[in-house]
Amino acid sequence: MLSGADVVLPTGTVRNGQVIIERTRITATAPENARIVDVTGHWLVPGFVDIHNHGGGGASFTSGTVDDVLTGIHTHRTHGTTTLVASTVTGDMHFLAQRAGLLSELAEQGDIAGIHFEGPFISPCRKGAHSEALLRDPDPAEVRKLIDAARGHATMVTLATELPGGVDSVRLLSEHGVIAAIGHTDATYEQTVEAIDAGATVATHLFNAMPALGHRAPGPIAALLEDERVTVELINDGTHLHPAALELAFHHAGPDRVAFITDAMDAAGFGDGRYMLGPLEVEVADGVARLVEGGSIAGSTLTLDRAFKRAVTIDRLSVEDTVAALSANPARLLGLDDRIGSLEPGKDADLVLLDADFDLKGVMRRGEWVVDPQLG
Q1: Which one, of 249, 179, 180, 174, lies nearest residue 208 by Cα?
Q2: Sign of the C-alpha dihedral, residues 255, 231, 250, 303?
Q3: For position 376, what pLDDT does the model report?
Q4: Mean per-residue pLDDT for 215-230?
Q5: Which of 58, 258, 274, 320 is most exposed by smallest CB count within 10 Å?
Q6: What sign does the dihedral 208-209-212-213 (CA atoms) show?
Q7: To 5 degrees, how large is the angle CA 350–CA 351–CA 357?
Q8: Residue 177 Ramachandran class (φ > 0 left, ψ -120 to 50 alpha, else beta)
Q9: pTM higher than 0.90, yes or no?
Q10: Where are the alpha helices (DSSP H) in the chain?
């Protein structure tokens, strides 16, 4: 039993609260002779849920071996991410199908929560750190090939829905229970509304890799922010978004429709240097990843514990709203909120222990310490 912390629950924060853990679950009543660990002066929050992540710890989800992927997963777990969706980048269809097969094995083992295909069905006008030579229109038959290759573990596909086949692909994804995300798009406001009406429910890293908000041509940003059916991803690393843009998103979407993501690549939790993101070379300097050729931002080196601290100390978000964006909202989006995303009896014992300055001190996943706070 962890006792004495400020415990963030769906109903609010309980001061001097307690979380009772029995084996892998949170329970309502303590077993006899339960060990009490004093965590006074700390915060207890749910484990973080990252729905958009390409790697970390020097390892890539987009091209690495099984051991590489496990290294990246462990790196993010040590920073509080107890549930993670592995994201790919644009490649040829055969290669992506192979990656889907490898990642689906890890999903079956419970190491990842699913697979997110970011590309190749995106706009060459907004390609970001994706190889233009490998981009293609979102033909529903091609989209179906990736879904099938993932063996039931395709969680999300990012599409430029204005491209030929885009809206039909959204409908296909929706029919198969896969999240259709609008991103790397050059869509107009009207085209975005059409895609949302067809079943798209996520904005891939809102503001990034899409037209800017305009007063005569509002573009996709306005459509994505205003529709209550859409969850908006935000990369809160201080590089991808100005604080005013983050505040705008929270104000218009509300705290229940924001999901903080990392969009991390190999350098997350590892360091500066040269890396590969798919077929493209990336230079990471001072923690910012950019393509060697062209200089586009190439994912991030963010970890979600840093996103948490920035949200509450710089962006001045409430701890409760930050927890929603890092845990409850993405868990609900994945359909896993019956198991994760909040500190409630019956759910997995996934939690993060933070000190009074919001620095990470401990991480528990399914009742076992990944980062042991060495308390009591």
Answers
A1: 249
A2: positive
A3: 57
A4: 97
A5: 274
A6: negative
A7: 165
A8: left
A9: yes
A10: 66-77, 93-108, 140-149, 166-175, 189-198, 219-226, 243-253, 304-313, 319-323, 329-333
Q: How does 270-289 read in b/e, with b if 16+ C-beta sit within 10 Å? A: beeeebebbbbebbbeebbb
Confidence (pLDDT) at 172: 98
> Which tokens is 366 given?
């399914």
- The one catalytic residue in 68, 186, 227, 263 is 263
Encoded tokens for 211: 């037209």
What distance in Å separates the CA atoms of residue 62 and residue 117, rounded to the nearest whole number? Answer: 10
Cα 311 to the chain's mean position, in Å?
A: 15
Tokens of 112: 């990842």
Phi, psi of 271 (to 5 degrees): 145, 175
Q: How far is CA 177 from CA 88, 144, 167, in A?
A: 19, 12, 15
Reported as a single tens digit per residue, the pLDDT across 80-106 is 999 999 999 999 999 999 999 999 999
* Residue owning tokens 């070379």: 281
Read off the tokens for 375: 């308390």
- Residue 263 designated active-site: yes
What is the rounded distance in angstroms from the CA atom of residue 66 to the CA atom of residue 99?
A: 10
Confidence bin at 115 (pLDDT 50/70/90)? very high
Q: How far apart are CA 13 and CA 128, in angstroms?
A: 40
